[in-house]
Automatic annotation (TrEMBL):
Enzyme Commission number, as recorded: 3.2.1.89
MF-aspect GO terms: arabinogalactan endo-1,4-beta-galactosidase activity; glucosidase activity
Lineage: superkingdom: Bacteria
Repeat found in the keyword field: no
The keyword Protein biosynthesis appears for this protein: no
Record-linked InterPro entries: GH, Glyco_hydro_53
A Gene Ontology BP annotation from the UniProt entry: pectin catabolic process
Identification of the protein by name: Arabinogalactan endo-beta-1,4-galactanase
Organism of origin: Bifidobacterium hapali
Family: Belongs to the glycosyl hydrolase 53 family.
Keywords: Glycosidase, Hydrolase
Catalytic activity entry: The enzyme specifically hydrolyzes (1->4)-beta-D-galactosidic linkages in type I arabinogalactans
Length: 136
């Protein structure tokens, strides 16, 4: 992904965060999907919401004095009030009790990864689906 300043010049992640901060932004929201790519590594067209990408962006944000909010989607792609599918790496039947353990493990591993590189976000669990969490 490329970013440009108001003059049209390319800027890196740090430049973007500086631009945001200088224009009154104090928080960045980063969404993290479980595995937002197909078997060939191509993302689904909604950006690149992988944990590794969020880590890099969060570090740039914090280095530039911005607060970070990380939203875990618990899906492979963006969720909505009516669509929330189980990640393809979670081949379990809807409603199965193993889902809670998988969600807990994924959350703990993700938070440990963030903490290990010094990213201390305000985070939230994204469950926008009214009919069920993580496709359940």
């Amino acid at each position: 992904m490329k970013f440009h300043n108001f003059d049209g010049h390319d800027i890196d992640d740090n430049g973007l965060m500086q631009l945001l901060k200088s224009n009154g932004v104090n928080y960045v929201l980063l969404k993290v999907a479980v595995n937002p790519a197909d078997e060939n590594g191509n993302t689904y067209g909604g950006g690149n919401p992988m944990l590794a990408n969020a880590l890099k962006t969060a570090q740039a944000a914090q280095a530039n004095g911005l607060n970070v909010n990380i939203q875990f989607l618990y899906s492979d792609f963006h969720t909505s009030k009516i669509v929330q599918k189980l990640p393809k790496s979670c081949p379990i039947t809807k409603g199965e009790t193993k889902l809670a353990a998988k969600v807990a493990d994924y959350t703990a591993q993700s938070l440990a990864t963030l903490k290990a590189v010094g990213v201390l976000p305000v985070w939230c669990i994204a469950c926008l689906a009214c009919a069920g969490f993580a496709g359940s």
